Amino acid sequence: MAPQDLRIEAEEARLLILRMLRGGRSGHVGGALSCVDILTTLYFDEMDIDPLEPTRPDRDRFILSAGHKALAQYAVLARRGYFPEPWVDTYSDLGSRLAGHPDMHKLPGVEANTGALGHGLSIACGIALGLRLQERRSRVFVVLGDGELPEGSNWEGAAMAAHHQLGNVVAFVDVNDLQISGRTADVMNMEPIADKFAAFGWKVRTIDGNDVEQIQGVLAEVDRDSSSPTAVVAQTTKAKGVSSLEDTAASHYWKPAAAEMAEAEAEIRARLQQLSLQTVAR
């Protein structure tokens, strides 16, 4: 998919994220907005998937380790056709398929229940090893947050992936520099993140995680026949796309007033209109 088309899809997903917040009245919007460009590029441009066959055995898999960013995954799954878009209006309702964290038993396209931070990478590595034992060429993509890196299970997964030479694992670390308690550097500084993954034996790339062309570029460099897993350190902006919230800890879990919601939606719609005009002019 052309980068401009991916940008449009990412903005459409941002609107759906706000639509879910409008219905649910609150949610983990900051991290969802920071990682949505990564998820959009994976689902629309990179992964071998079929929304009409969400359990096809040879599909690529995606694990959202930072499960509280589920708003981003729900938005992209809806845009990709995994479920009817009106389902997003049920977000956080009692009995909804779209809960605060993804549930593989309720929603097609969700590969694992996540939300207890630190476990997604290990789950992804286990799936990747199983796929290799089945002699499948499927890949496993995982998105972690920089705030969950202090969890020790991440590094058990990192060691296991390198030891078993799981070249079919690609991990994106969404480094938006903030978590619910404040700056990650102040709460638990895990830098240098790239050097840590490299020390475990991973191939490491560092990019702007809100730039779809850089995301496409780094994915084009991944060799599926490599014996080394790949870590992409993606520097992003918390709440990217809503300027009043960007780079604030307050965006981690947001309860918007009506005026704040209207302003945020108007900003994204204006950007969408501009992108669409640019596309027509090409």
Q: Could you walk me through the main structural features you see in this protein, from its secondary elements to its overall organization?
A:
It is built from 9 helices and 7 strands, in the order H-H-E-H-H-E-H-E-E-E-H-H-E-H-E-H. The protein is α/β, with parallel strands linked by helices. It has a 5-stranded parallel sheet with strand order 1-2-3-7-6, sandwiched between helices. The two termini are 15 Å apart. The model has no long low-confidence stretch (mean pLDDT 97).
| Global outline | globular
Strand order of the largest sheet: 1-2-3-7-6
Ends distance:
15 Å
The name CATH uses for the topology is Rossmann fold
Taking the sheet with the most strands, its summary is: 5 strands, parallel
How many domains? 1
- What is the typical, i.e. mean, pLDDT? 97
Unreliable segments of 5+ consecutive residues: none
So, CATH architecture? 3-Layer(aba) Sandwich
CA-atom Rg in angstroms: 18 Å
Q: Would you state the CATH class? A: Alpha Beta
H/I helix tally: 9
Can you say what the CATH homologous superfamily is? Thiamin diphosphate (ThDP)-binding fold, Pyr/PP domains
Counted beta strands: 7
H-E string: HHEHHEHEEEHHEHEH
Give the % helix.
40-55%
Structural class: alpha/beta
Q: Quote the beta fraction.
A: 5-15%
